[in-house]
Amino acid sequence: MAEEKTVSAGRHVASLNSPGKVEPVSLCSIEGATENRMLTGIKEFDRILGGGIVPGSVILVGGDPGIGKSTLLLQAFAGLSQKTGKMLYVSGEESPRQIKMRADRLSVSADNIVLLPETSIEGILDAAIKISPDAMVVDSIQTVFTQELSSAPGSVGQVRECAAKLMMFAKRSNIPVFIVGHVTKEGTIAGPRVLEHIVDTVLYFEGDRGHSYRIMRTIKNRFGSTNEIGIFEMSDSGLREVDNPSELFLSGRPRNVSGSTVVASLEGTRPLMVEIQALVSRTNFGIPRRTSIGVDFNRVNLLVAILEKRAGMHLGGMDIFINIVGGLKIVEPAVDLGIIATIASSARDVPIGPKSFVFGEVGLSGEIRAVAQANARLKEASKIGFERAVIPVGNAEKIDNNYGLKINGVKDIEEFLLSILG
After folding, report:
1. How far is 177 from 154, CA to CA, in rounded Å?
2. What is the pLDDT of residues 248-259, one digit of tens each?
3. Domain range spanning residue 278?
């Protein structure tokens, strides 16, 4: 690995404060202020930011190439420019003509959007000071360099130093700055992760190229809730926000087929109804194959072991494939019960009722533990037509409204499998 030159102390990024000696101040002597957030007009985008863009914030947007980062930011800037004023779009990868072609395709009004094809951070900041925009975007940070370092653009030193300069500019000028970041083969923002510590908000764009929708997930947010998601659909005219994502994820769901279960998941503050599918079949090889898409592989293996030990199912010679339909990635433990139900349904070839859904965490002893926000999950399920919920008994005893659902509380996986499969 080649050694990178570091910037000298005398030329390092200046302090957030004005030049001169900085005196400590008492926290109670600082006047608090309610920030007037800037709205883009894209409700999903504003919601995952915590209610809009905070002036002076630095927002990092990452995602695979071609996922729609530049498209969404151009649409957001078009909405901002109509409500606030001048926007500065700095492009280090595309020419102004290419951006204009995209704007025409998206039918974006570009009257107040100023394009700057520049890769020098000194030139970018000089232009930003002269233009004084209401917001700016740098696309992408891996193409920007500072003359204070001799390393190539995209190196860790260049990325860190350029991002720090942009952060200082945003805090001093109170201008929000969007930074587009490339991702590595592992799916993390190139840096490595140094950008996430500098910025205020981190947004990841997810999505399967085989599907038309995109998911924007909040990983870090100093001004709102984390783990929020926004659902968008990619069309010829750009990204369109999805008002009812639960119906989207359940569209095309097979009826009266084994190995399919609907689970009520929670992403941030948003409840989502998603379908989990499983295929369990006897292996033709010496070692059975286990594959999971959208859920943690180790978690699936743990739940399979619980089924074998606590429910007496013989899965040692079975291939097991698990998939979250639609490409959504779920990490919360409330989907444990859905995974258990789906595997058991496929193994026994017994379908689960199409109007039934489940949620709950499964412990190593086979007990089913209560999860948070049960009322929100039940309300979402009732809204889209479900009739029966099989949930932890701890949640069933505490809910204050059944929302017209028939609710079965279960305490362990044996009782659960008897209830859901009969």
Report:
1. 19
2. 889 888 888 999
3. 248-421
